[in-house]
Amino acid sequence: MPERKGLVIVHTGNGKGKTTAALGMAFRALGHGFKILMVQFIKGSWKYGELETAKKFENFELRPMGLGFVSTDGKVSEKDRRAAHEALSFAQARLGNYDMVILDEVIYAIGFGLINENEVLSLIDEKPERLHLVLTGRNAPEKIIARADLVTEMCEIKHPYQKGIKAQKGIEF
Amino acid sequence: MPERKGLVIVHTGNGKGKTTAALGMAFRALGHGFKILMVQFIKGSWKYGELETAKKFENFELRPMGLGFVSTDGKVSEKDRRAAHEALSFAQARLGNYDMVILDEVIYAIGFGLINENEVLSLIDEKPERLHLVLTGRNAPEKIIARADLVTEMCEIKHPYQKGIKAQKGIEF
After folding, report:
1. Which secondary structure element, helix H or strand E, spans residue B134, and what is its range?
2. What is the ipTM of this complex?
């Protein structure tokens, strides 16, 4: 019998805190000596602050693999698509090496057609029993929610930009 | 002019991730060399994992000051009320010593009548301009939301207990 039941965890919704709460989970799991891989699917979701802090932890591997994909006209370049697939394959090939794998903004990557929902479902199917798998990104598709054990929606109630306040060090970057 | 505009940030809602996202903010802010105080208003909101990890950071001070308050019959003991007030006074007296102060489950403490909403509003009013203040807990009152710059609601969409899965190391504790 495996020593634990690894969970499939989804952070979705239009609010802040999806990536941040994943970092908080890493913070907690590191205290148990967990080995953690965090893969970045969309460039810009990680900030200077966490990259600095993460350096303190040998067990916390961060892999920025996304391109600077921003959808303005709904078009997706082949290059962006390739980068997202490389990130997914990279994680998939290493699922057995970690206690927790965080696929940051992977759901956003599905939403913009960079990768297919079924490719992510396959990765979930291949997950070792003991591995905690965390997926973040807005608009999580039904099938992924159905496969998850724990789903939290982060809803934006109020944002400082609405009040004309600029991005702040330590909060936004 | 102050070097930055400190934000008042609220994590509320019935879902997981309120404390976890606050830890993630601390993780990010530590990378900028921020000095952080996190005060616990309700015992049990912090887990072994984060307490272990926090030890690695000289700049991250955690103060468990809450009692094991659990409302089953809606009654509040004088001892619980006193503990909550001590936690609030402790933080209030030290607002000037930190770059970020996290009052964990302070909003929950308001909801159960341990402290008064106006006492928390006074603390917000006294906040130094440059301090980031983070308040967590479900059912944030309107007046606190009105005073906040950034409010995220964590909504529970799906929880492993619904599927009969037990609490897991590194996730729940």
Report:
1. strand B132-136
2. 0.84
- In this structure, are strands B132-136 and B100-104 parallel, antiparallel, or unpaired? parallel
Q: Is the pLDDT of residue A53 over 80?
A: yes
Find the residue in A nearest to B134 (Cα): A171
CA distance B121 to A103: 38
Contacts of B81 (CB under 8 A, 6+ apart): B113, B114, B115
Short-list A91, A97, A158, CA closest to A119: A91
Name the β-bridge partners of A11: A136, A152
- Distance from the Cα of A121 to chain B's closest Cα (Å) equals 18
pLDDT tens digits, B37-74 = 999 998 777 888 889 999 999 999 999 988 766 556 66
* Chain B contact probe: residue of A102, A150, A165 with most B CBs at under 10 A: A150
CA dist list (Å): A84 to A12, A18, A114, B59:
19, 19, 6, 36
Using CA atoms, how far apart are residues B160 and A150, in angstroms rounded to an integer? 5
Domains and CATH numbers, chain A: 8-69+76-157 (3.40.50.300)
Nearest residue to B84 (alpha-carbon basis) of B50, B60, B108: B108
Closest C-alpha to B69, from B94, B87, B51, B91: B87
Contact A105, A40 (CB under 8 A): yes
Strand segments, DSSP code E, in chain A are 8-12, 36-42, 60-67, 100-104, 132-136, 150-158
- What's the whole-model pTM score? 0.88
What is the SS3 assignment for A84? helix
Q: What is the mean pLDDT of residues A43-47?
A: 77
